[in-house]
UniProtKB/TrEMBL annotation:
<dbReference type="Pfam" id="PF13468">
    <property type="entry name" value="Glyoxalase_3"/>
</dbReference>
<dbReference type="InterPro" id="IPR025870">
    <property type="entry name" value="Glyoxalase-like_dom"/>
</dbReference>
<dbReference type="InterPro" id="IPR037523">
    <property type="entry name" value="VOC_core"/>
</dbReference>
<dbReference type="InterPro" id="IPR051785">
    <property type="entry name" value="MMCE/EMCE_epimerase"/>
</dbReference>
<dbReference type="GO" id="GO:0046872">
    <property type="term" value="F:metal ion binding"/>
</dbReference>
<dbReference type="InterPro" id="IPR004360">
    <property type="entry name" value="Glyas_Fos-R_dOase_dom"/>
</dbReference>
<dbReference type="GO" id="GO:0046491">
    <property type="term" value="P:L-methylmalonyl-CoA metabolic process"/>
</dbReference>
<feature type="domain" description="VOC">
    <location>
        <begin position="160"/>
        <end position="248"/>
    </location>
</feature>
<keyword id="KW-0479">Metal-binding</keyword>
<protein>
    <recommendedName>
        <fullName>VOC domain-containing protein</fullName>
    </recommendedName>
</protein>
<dbReference type="Pfam" id="PF00903">
    <property type="entry name" value="Glyoxalase"/>
</dbReference>
<dbReference type="InterPro" id="IPR029068">
    <property type="entry name" value="Glyas_Bleomycin-R_OHBP_Dase"/>
</dbReference>
<dbReference type="GO" id="GO:0004493">
    <property type="term" value="F:methylmalonyl-CoA epimerase activity"/>
</dbReference>
<feature type="domain" description="VOC">
    <location>
        <begin position="4"/>
        <end position="138"/>
    </location>
</feature>
């Protein structure tokens, strides 16, 4: 059903300021900066070896703009959502419908790069919060165009995303969703006595979804918590971050 973790979405207020900040953090600039016609959003994309990071901001009116504004109002800037790649979005939708998920049709998406004028197209299938337990998640099938990779090498840069951390208060329900419904391999399930919870590792195309689970008897809820980056030489990356004026 799913092929990979496609990208991680970070909601930001000012795209220019955020591009400057994440260029310092990652060690290279974005290869795509553009807009989503009809959505009221603009973005910047940073490609890594195994996925890409998307900074997403409101720049007008539309459903995408409303979503970003609401998220930032409730949570502030930060990790907003996760996109899962599929090569057959129609088959994925049919599988979910067959399992009783109340879901809409997929939506055609389009983005235009502000520098090159290149257009990319894709199909999205937004998953209901009743299924994802509050975590903004959607499936994506890329159609025409692609995100450019950097031709240059950058010293002490981030090369890939090792894992994304998800918090949950309902580990069994999350296993049912990610392993049984999504078909993502559960590679680790262990109890951690030190803090009285469970740690789960789901692996999909060389990317790990690390789940920290603490049950509290409340309504099931999942949320993104953090990202772990891979670098070639951590000492060199540390020195680069310090030289950029970042606190690490």
């Amino acid at each position: 059903m799913l092929d990979s973790v496609d990208h991680i979405i970070i909601a930001v207020e000012d795209i220019s300021v955020s591009v400057e900040n994440y260029t310092k953090i990652l060690g290279f600039p974005p290869t795509w900066k553009g807009v989503h016609p009809g959505q009221g959003t603009e973005n910047a994309l940073f490609p890594l070896e195994n996925l890409y990071v998307e900074l997403l901001a409101s720049n007008g009116e539309g459903p995408g703009s409303d979503m970003i504004k609401s998220f930032i109002e409730l949570n502030g800037e930060g990790l907003c959502g996760i996109a899962l790649n599929t090569s057959d979005i129609e088959a994925a939708r049919n599988k979910l419908v067959a399992e009783g998920v109340d879901i809409g049709n997929f939506i055609e998406g389009e983005g235009k790069d502000e520098d090159s004028g290149e257009i990319r197209t894709w199909k999205n299938l937004f998953l209901p919060f009743s299924l994802t337990r509050g975590l903004f998640t959607f499936l994506i099938q890329h159609e025409d165009g692609s995100i450019p990779n950097h031709r240059d090498e950058f010293d002490a840069a981030v090369t890939r995303l090792d894992h994304v951390v998800i918090n949950t208060n309902d580990p069994e329900g999350l296993i049912s969703l990610y392993r049984d419904t999504f078909g993502i391999r559960l590679a680790l399930d262990q109890t951690v006595e030190q803090w009285g919870g469970r740690m789960l590792f789901f692996r999909l195309n060389h990317t790990t979804l690390e789940v920290i689970a603490k049950e509290n008897g409340e309504q099931p809820e999942d949320s993104l918590w953090g990202l772990a980056w891979v670098v070639t030489d951590i000492r060199e990356t540390y020195a680069r971050l310090i030289s950029e004026g970042l606190e690490v």
